[in-house]
Amino acid sequence: MGQVQGKVAIVTGGASGIGAASAATLTREGAKVVVTDLDDSRGEAVVAEIGSAGGEAIFLHQDVSLEESRPGIIEAAERRFGRLDVIVANAGIGSYAGPSRCRWPTGGDKPR
After folding, report:
1. Whole-model pTM?
2. Cα–Cα distance between 70 and 3 in angstroms, integer?
């Protein structure tokens, strides 16, 4: 404990993967965390796990691609915890179009 003791963090994309691990690590180090994500059930599960481990966190639904959602999340963190110190911008915005093949100037798929 200690590196972020008493700090308040928002972790976007916190319902799984790196975001969930970041939220758990922050709480283990003493921070209070606001977990946001599109996946409500997984986000709530992450918050429950944090609580079971003795940490303090809340979940808020957020679509980070909607700019208008951002101020409300910050305001909620400040209302609940009285401050905001850290934002972990983990959520991705984009789409997956599948693998593509690089074509090098040589015309092949490998440089010479």
Report:
1. 0.82
2. 26
Distance from CA of residue 49 to its chain's centroid? Answer: 15
Looking at the chain, which runs of residues are DSSP E strands?
8-12, 32-37, 56-61, 86-88
The upper half-sphere exposure of residue 91, i.e. CA atoms within 13 Å in the direction of its Cβ, equals 21
pLDDT digits (tens, 9 = 90+) for 12-53: 999 999 999 999 999 999 999 999 999 999 999 999 999 999
> Of how many residues is the chain composed?
112
User: Distance (Å, rounded) from C-alpha 57 to C-alpha 43?
Assistant: 10
Cβ(5)–Cβ(65) under 8 Å?
A: no
